[in-house]
Fold:
Amino acid sequence: MALTYFKRYRMEIDLNKVDFAKHRLPAGYRFVPWSPALVATHAEVKCLSFRHEIDANVFSCLGDYEGCRRLMIEISRKEGFLPEATWLIAKLDEEPAEDGATRGRIDPASLTYVGTVQGVEDRFGYGAIQNLGIVPEQRGGGLGSVLLLKALEGFRRAGLKRAFLEVTAQNEGAVRLYRNLGFAKARTVYKAVELMGVPVR
Structure:
């Protein structure tokens, strides 16, 4: 067992300067709002998104479904939990019918969930992004940017002025995404983690 220190950045953004119209969901995808009935779905998407990534080394709960489920329950019970900043992205496996009484209705069985994000207001009045994740096979198409903007919009609707997130410095793709959306590094922190023969990715 070895003690390893992971460098992480706290990145912040002024919500008044965010262009929420900059990114849109591609055709065939839908936002799904928070519901307590979706705890398991958020946990499953979170696990699929993080289990083979460096953050599963930094936070061991992200490495398996049960850990993600416990984390999701903990987040949803926080005093500052914000449903309006907590979303799933679902991919439609088939287009909904467009005629008669079925117009606009989507069969839940025709959805595949591919992205998750949660938002919390911290004790200083900041919006805190929790665990933005896109499943590996859906990356590269801009879904992460769109999902993050949806959560930030929820913070602003809740009356918040600023938001932040933390990201592992080695996760260069995520750092680049956040900078492109207007986040700036506010400070560097280090997290000590005991690793038992787990390769650092």
Summary: The chain is about 25% helix and 30% strand. The CA atoms of residues 19 and 126 lie 18 Å apart.
